[in-house]
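Hey,
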Amino acid sequence: MFKSRLLLITSSLILLAGLILGACAQATPPLTTPTAISPAEPVTLRIVVLPILDTLPMYVAQQKGYFDAQGVKVEFIPAGSAAERDQIIAAGQGDGMVNDLVSTLFYNQDTIQIQIVSLARTATSEFPQYSILAAGNSGISSVEGLKGVEIGISEGSVIAYTTDRLLQAEGLSPDQIKTIAVPKIGERMALLGSGELKAANLPDPLSSLAIQSGAIPILNDTKHPELGNSEISFRKVVIDEHPQAIRGFLIAVEQAIKEINADPSQWESLLTEQKLVPEPLIGTYKIPPFPTGSVPSEAQWADVLAWAKEKGLISKDVSYSDSVTAEFLP
């Protein structure tokens, strides 16, 4: 009798425990593996590049992985001339470029096609960007000697603008300034070297090479650094579609600029690899400081606009605020 009662109690306890455990099991939600959040696909920005020093920070940012860190993929599209660069941009086959204020005016004279988002490079009191040189056998040694002398330029360009404005700043009147169109830089250098051209305006570092080869420096924008600059620009449609990518791009470039400015001597292999500096200058050429976190001023824009209207290159005003934005600066 006792055994039967004990067996009954034991069975009841086992049944009760089972019910309790079953209830607990139902009350505890099943464990689930969290869904992994995949990072957004990096935006690809296609940058049309000329073989010019102004693009060095972009190459450094690429080499150091700074674009990747910002979630931006950069594809460089080489162009042999400003005309080829502009064709690629106009066709929508490139997204951004290094250009200048004059070029931007032409893009935006009818509708806003591109926006400047940053300075790429600017002249300083020690480092020129544009230089007017005389041929070694020309007998010209001063600005006065350039009166009435044909100066080789590319017409309707930043070269033409800086030629006029530099000489005017030094006292020459417009009728004393004579120019001749030699659009190809290589040809302009060769004609200057042979003496067939008595004078020419050349961008740095090609001006340094010409001087090393015997040309005579007459005037450059170290005296008037507000005149010499280049810009980073993007197509407006790309800016509107990928504002964060533009911001990330500039953060990466800024990081590269700080490294370059801190130690300009460590980039010779990159200069050679990308042909940013002529071979004979490697080892002696000093890299200029690059500007950080800035855009051209409204006064600079207004002067280029005034010059273009004086020359009959454009007939109406082009808005600074629509063409230049500081919104994406780091």
